[in-house]
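Exercise 7. Predict the structure of COMM domain-containing protein 2 from Bison bison bison.
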Amino acid sequence: MLLDLSEEHKEHLAFLPKVDSAVVTEFGRIAVEFLRRGSNPKIYEGAARKLSVSSDTVQHGVEGLIYLLTESSKLMISELDFQDSVFILGFPEELNKLLLQLYLDNRKEIRTILSELAPDLPSYHSLEWRLDVQLASRSLRQQIKPSVTIKLHLNQNGDHNTQVLQTDPATLLHLVQQLEQALEEMKTNHCRRVVRNIK
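Solution. The predicted structure, encoded as tokens:
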């Protein structure tokens, strides 16, 4: 699977062949540090002074490298696919090897950092349901009033919690139809592209 880099990202990465390999290695270290601790404008300014370029140019170069490394790590692309993705950029062979080494050295750490940044949402554990039907009351002798009670068990951070929901069958049927429609929508090409870019 090849990375699909936009023209903007290609422009940001175009700065890398203009600098020494030691600078690219330092940019890689800054990129991983950025993921760990966040942005530090002083680092960009210091590197810009040493290289005699604007701090925006350095920042864009590092951000392009961050995007390249995070997307590659997220998708767990192979060495060959990474080389092919970088080859498209038209960099010298030495720089391609350096970027590959940066990726191989840091992909596990980047995946760990990205997994820590991901929101921890509740996950499904089990479901219990009950159908209640009220056939009569003191005021109405003949009535049929069904209701569905659902007890949803969820896991979050190793804790179990329970949500109790109650609805009538018509609303439940509508909810099921909407969920089935959403599942069908997920099979469209547009949704697949969106999900691929989110991951």
